[in-house]
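Q: How do we represent a protein-ligand complex in a form that can be generated token by token?
A: Start from the inputs.
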Amino acid sequence: MAKLQGKIALITGGTSGIGAATAKLFQAEGATVIATGSSQASVDAARADLPGIELLVSDASDTAAAKALVDQVKAKHGRIDVLFANAGRAQFAPIEQVDEAFFDHQFNTNVRGVYFLLKHAAPVIADGGAIILTASVAGSTGGLPGASVYGATKAALRSFGRTFAKELSPRGIRVNTVSPGPINTPIFLKNGYPQAAADAFLEGAKTRIPLGRAGYPDEVARAALYLAADATYTTGAEVFVDGGLVDI
Ligand SMILES: NC(=O)c1ccc[n+]([C@@H]2O[C@H](COP(=O)([O-])OP(=O)(O)OC[C@H]3O[C@@H](n4cnc5c(N)ncnc54)[C@H](OP(=O)(O)O)[C@@H]3O)[C@@H](O)[C@H]2O)c1
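Then emit the structure tokens for the protein with NAP bound:
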């Protein structure tokens, strides 16, 4: 039997990378999948790659949009069984170059938007459901130059995961965090960096990471599936999918 047969799964940031891989895997496991992107253009571009998946535009940094998204899913599907809060932006700069717009953009998308999505979604998540947050090794590893803002946003998600696990445990809702290391996705290009930066990031993974390579989106998707379906006695946990990076 498929692991998510009959389940309603909402995935934010499902138009590419980790979210798209997870949308496909959840769908293959029997779920009805609703996935979001930030713009009509990115949603339209993703459509051909994600047949059968309901794609919606919903700006993850906009708390009103988060409420509207939950209302829309509730109206059509009645409930959410699995919420994968995955949408995120990654921008890197040393503190001298960080301004308030840079700081707010990432905190609004990666932290504030996720917090209020969870607030609005919690009443709609079925008892016994699952929430998975995409954080990052950057939330745990210290001293990654340029990642002061991004790392702090992901550390916040690790904290949300642990706290919401306690708050929602009376309803049997499990809340867990998946923290990827370097994964080969369009994240650099989507955040305005050149292909050369993406290539350097992936090349650097070969020497920095014990397993000697960057990961693939499907490897994170399988961790998300584990947390969504199999990990029935796991809540408040953080699963690293990072080739061993954080234990160095
Ligand atoms: N790749 C890595 O090495 C890595 C490592 C650790 C953690 N992560 C985390 O993994 C998550 C997924 O990243 P990815 O690597 O798969 O990158 P990606 O391919 O760039 O995917 C990011 C997804 O988030 C969506 N998104 C971003 N901002 C949004 C907004 N304001 N509103 C709605 N959707 C928004 C994007 O939608 P649009 O395309 O429609 O804009 C896209 O679907 C992120 O939270 C990222 O921080 C990635």
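The pocket of NAP is lined by residues 13-19, 36-39, 42, 58-61, 86-90, 109, 134, 136, 180, 182-183, 185-187, 190 (CB under 6 Å). The first strand starts at residue 8 and ends at 12.
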